[in-house]
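Work Package 3 (structural annotation) set out to generate three-dimensional models for the target panel prioritized at the project kickoff. During this period the team completed the workflow that converts sequence records into discrete structure tokens, so that structures can be stored uniformly alongside our sequence database. As a representative example, we reproduce one entry of 442 residues exactly as it appears in the project archive.
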Amino acid sequence: MESSVLLVVVVLLVLFVVVALVRAVQIIPQATAAVVERLGKFKAVEEPGLVFLVPFVDRIRERIDLREQVVSFPPQPVITKDNLTVNIDTVVYYQVNDPKNAVYEIADYINGVQQTTTTTLRNVVGGMSLEEALTSRDQINTVLRGELDDVTGRWGIRVARVELKAIDPPPSIQASMEQQMKADREKRAMILTAEGQRESAIRSAEGQKQSQILTAEGQKQAAILNAEADRQSRILRAQGERAARYLQAQGQAKAIEKVFAAIKAGKPTPELLAYQYLQTLPQMAQGDANKVWIVPSDFGKALEGFSRMLGAPGDDGVFRFEPSASDDTASNPADDDESVKDWFDTASDPKLAQAVAAAEAQARADVPALGAAPAPIPSSDPVPPSAAETDEVTRKIERARAESATPTPPRGLPPVPPAPHPRPNPQDAGPARPGYPSPPPS
């Protein structure tokens, strides 16, 4: 019996020792502070680590987390300056600096921070309109932080930051704001569209203006070049026609001289001249304007006068043609007159070739881009062209001058008379024809 009682006492003593040891030795984690009371009175704030307490005398009142805490409060209804109720959701970042004050100065510092935030938020937002509240979050955060620091400073709490998580206006206001924003966006879209159309119209007008200016400049240059080409062509054609007429006249003169010399060299008789005259009479009647042709009655007398005028009487009394002294001196048309020497000059004019080359270079010039300055009109003294272009233009001008200066064959030359017939023997001749002289006696 006594052994059983002794065993119970030993067990109770062991349990007491274990409980005392457990209550006497405490471990405080890092970033945590423990408020210790002795017999219900504040003793100390223990730092993190191993802490020894007096069993059944000291106790830990509360463990305080020294890290920065984040508390999100539920949405609070707030009335703005323009009598609109909005729900504002706030987030508070705080940290406990003094665990003793956080335990003994306020019963629930979290609830205190929440209530202080709500009242301060209503005071600040109540003096703003809805538009100002939506666009002044930084100002509201600054005011809330200052107010909370003043209130929570004696609680041993430091408020690091206050953020407005959301500001929710009433559904009707949200619909109106959406309509307003939609109208504003449509307005800006219409303004931008109008600006784009105006800019497009301005650019199109500028392009048309530039195009018309370039077209007018091109037409002007083309007209100038055409007029200059027409003038040069007419001048060259007139010079060619002038030289051609002069050469034609010279050719006709030489042809007449040759024919006259041939006639004189052939020594025709009056009978041959009369025969040629008779052959010419039908040709005179072949014209379209010759409707009536009358043979003169004194045809024989006319032949007799013609033979007396061209011939001289010989010893036998017959009029024969005596040729004059022939002049075979060759003449050059360019040497006849000093003023017509340049008519037969086929050399190219360097100024004309230079002007034509400059005109071709201007015509081949590229058209400037949309919006760029128009190409300057070349001055009256163009840049000299290259040697290849000058040679090409010179060959073209010489070819044109040669074609225009080629003389045409002489027109209206008298026909070359046929070879003279042998003089007939007067004794073999028959009776004399009326109008012809009688042959002299043998």
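Confidence is low (pLDDT under 50) at residues 377-383, 405-442.
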